[in-house]
Amino acid sequence: MIILLSNYIIPLMILFVLLYGTYKKVPTYEKFVEGGKEGVSLAISLLPFLLGMIVSISIFRASGAMDAFVSLIAPVLTFLHVPPDIVPLALTRPISGTASLGVATDIIKTEGPDSYLGKLASTMQGSTDTTLYVLTVYFGAVGIKKMGDALKVGLLADFIGIIASLVICYLLFG
Amino acid sequence: MVHIIWVGLAAVGIVYAMFNGTIEEVNEVIFESANEAVYLIISLVSILVFWLGMMRIAEEAGLLTKLAQLFKPLFTRLFPDIPHDHPAMGYILSNFSANIFGLGNAATPLGIKAMKEMKKLNGDKDEASRSMITFLALNTSSVTLIPTTIIAIRMQYDSIAPTEIVISTIFATFISTIGAILIDRYFYYRRQGRLDYDHSIK
């Protein structure tokens, strides 16, 4: 059911956008190409972020330090039904979106995209955004120096997103 | 902060490898994983080009503005400090709509414009206003319908159902957004409470 629903969402959205665009007399193909160019530069600009983080995590994992770290905290986490391998992602998610994309990729690669961990990592990466990035970009751009409760609110919201991903994946896929 | 995590992972890994006898594996993995990152990006290009192209059509057809209209009644309640027809409200709504479609690049400039307008409303002070904090909370809990990048990565690693996580992501995003709004309200009323207390002492 979940797979079926998810399978329909994207094709239906595409169909709708194409038909609606034609109805509104948008030069669809031209606009598609225009937007697509942005996709190329976006992917290229992601490369250094992704490469840097993937190399760093691979070193951590290949050295055996990751396993040591995970088995250290495993007892507490398994008690809470939290897979210990997800911890590095939960820690990087609020700090940097591109960095956590690297971590999520690493989990998907090593555990497989259709494993429980793979799905959990995908959901976690997709469902929250990075507080520190949003905070720096938005407040930085307009020169807000006194942030008030903003950081606390943002980080707590991230925390809820992480917990929500854990619970929902446990219910849907666990 | 990301600097510390990044250096920490690599440095701890290398030092640990020296004692654990895994330095050979580490040496190999440095070049292997760098190579892999490049392949990964090349595979990401395909889906990003397609999706951003589609979304440009949606934007051009006025779907973003339509969506903004749909959410307006809700947002006037979320941002009681902003007058209904103030440009700040327009930018907040279009930023939100762009986020829903996963258009991070389009969302950021709109968000910055929204912030500028909110700063004006707040008398150009360098302090974060109530609306700014609410806006930030909404943005960090990121309402995204289609997590394009992660779907692309799942495809790259031969997932049998790359889009299976769309539903779980929507649920999680929904809950975290509700949570963010509640937390924001809680902190707002706490600030108000403290102000009242200060006034009563004076």
TrEMBL record, chain A:
Domain Nucleoside transporter/FeoB GTPase Gate residue range list: 44-145
- One of the record's GO cellular component terms: plasma membrane
Whether Transmembrane counts among this entry's keywords is yes
From the UniProt annotation, give the residues forming the signal peptide: none
One family name in Pfam for this protein: Gate
Give UniProt keywords alphabetically: Membrane, Transmembrane, Transmembrane helix
Q: What is the superkingdom listed in this entry's lineage? A: Bacteria
Q: Where are the transmembrane segments?
A: 5-23, 43-62, 153-173
Which PANTHER family has this protein been placed in? INNER MEMBRANE PROTEIN YJIG (PTHR35793:SF2)
Q: What is this protein called?
A: Spore maturation protein B
Which species is this UniProt entry from? Piscibacillus halophilus
UniProtKB/TrEMBL annotation, chain B:
Entry's transmembrane regions: 6-26, 38-58, 88-112, 133-153, 165-187
Give a single Pfam family match. Gate
Stretches of the chain forming a coiled coil according to its record? none
- Tell me which UniProt keywords the record has, alphabetically: Membrane, Transmembrane, Transmembrane helix
Q: Domain Nucleoside transporter/FeoB GTPase Gate, which positions?
A: 42-153
Instruction: Respond yes or no to whether keyword Signal is given for this record.
Output: no
This protein is called what? Answer: Spore maturation protein A
Q: Which organism is it from?
A: Piscibacillus halophilus
